[in-house]
Write a structure and sequence with these properties.
By secondary structure, the chain is of the alpha/beta class. It has 18 helices and 25 strands. The protein has a 7-stranded mixed β-sheet with strand order 2-6-5-3-4-9-8, with helices on both faces. Helix 2 runs parallel beside helix 3. Bound molecules: 1,6-di-O-phosphono-alpha-D-glucopyranose.
Length: about 550
Amino acid sequence: MIKTIATTPYTDQKMGTAGLRRKSKVVTQPNYIENFMQSIFNVIGELKGKTFVVGGDGRYYNDVAIQKIIKMAAANGISRLIIGQNGFISTPAGSNIILKNKADGGFILSASHNPGGINGDFGIKYSNHTGGQIPSSISDKIYQETLKIKEYKICDVADIDLSKLGRQEVCGMQIDVIDPVKDYVEMMEGIFDFAAIKALFAKGFTMRFDAMNAVTGPYALKIFEEILGAPKGSVVNYKPLPDFGGLHPDPNMVYAKELVNFMFSDKAADFGAANDGDGDRNMILGKKFFVTPSDSLAILTDHFNLIPAYKNGIYGVAKSAATSTAVEKVAKAHNIGYYEVPTGWKYFVNLMDSKRITFCGEESFGTGSSHIREKDGIWAVLFWLNIIAATGKSVEEITTEFWQKYGRSYYVRFDFEGVDTEVADKMMADLEAKLPSLAGQTFEGFKVSEAGAFVYNDPVDHSSTKNGLIVRFTDGSRIVYRLSGTGSSGATIRVYLERYSKDDLKNDPLKMLTEIFKIAMSISEIPERTGKHQADVVT
Ligand code: G16
């Protein structure tokens, strides 16, 4: 039943910040998935005896791609697949399943926060035995393989029924269809004080969790409503849909509009949160109050001792370079390790495995800990609920007290989308060449202390990665420029701005960053080069 099929390479199968992400219409071309998967299998080499986890966020084409992966895995000699019921597994739950079962890796079919559907995006995140996504050294090898692929192997059988839990066999390979929620819930119960959070809801505390018609709906219903007793109706948009019901499942102030409007209305709940398509991103809101992801990481870290799993101490904390420096001050105060890495959760994996860090987070609405090797949306929400339960304070009070203690890092990200790739690359190259000469110069009253490329030297595997450009000012303000690695067409230029204030705590971030924004535009020449005088998305 095993067939070898001839194929020709696609030249666009290079992975980005987190796996392969392309338009659905690209991925559905003949042999596109087959070429990519066979290239991965070829690079892994010996597959006999190996176990992989397979699932996805339920977006369009997940069902078709999962069947292809099962049949190819069997034909290539993989011994066992662990698959989420009906093909569903969130990214954080997938990482846990890999670690718990000591699997050799896994495939989560998702384009994360990108829209789904035939006109949306599709993607594949590939993790190894660490439970985290593969390092660039491996994804580079896979890309090289995709350029010379000539054939793939597939088992010629009917589609496999993934609706029933339990064991079955396909072409000599064992398949275990599992409940994707159960292990994840157990893990969360082992980390947080569920009794305290339950008592909080019993006292009348209200929340709204927006699953954005994506994968976290079943997880959130089970945890927040069923187990913790949040009022029925607290979890909204909980049914995963192939096109996310037309939503753009990116939990930020722009795309989680429905939740934001509710939380900024007079009917607001005490607490609001949203997750993205595959459940690894989170947004935290209080009543008429937004917590930036950078502040959220710093606040969670500052309160580690309130959480049962962390109360005996944490190793350290890491953030991506583009994330604000708020957490650096917390790390100093608690005298714990502090690391700055390139954008991409995979860069945290070595730090977690070597016990250098326990927490990590990014400006892109990602927070997590070493309980798994991916960021974890529901974990972040439970962490906040646990802090609220333990302190009896609101989201706004917790955040304001944090600013009073450490000062406030005003932070805003500006995205310039759909830029011509050549224009964006040239802009970054020219800027990199120009930056060192800016040191010592003053713009709009801000003096540049140093400027140049961000280079990360991994302390564990000693690899070196260049990611983005940073301009630092003498007062602690910063501008970071990067090209996004998660888009599916064209280039997105991200400009991240930060300004620190010790005592001006209740100002408007955009107002505080007016001058820095002007400087960022003038030194990069983004308006002149792209024709865009305003960012497409501001978060
Ligand atoms: C992925 C990565 C994150 C990264 C984000 C944005 O998240 O795992 O580490 O911060 O992309 O990357 P970029 O700025 O290159 O678009 P996700 O949630 O999309 O998998």
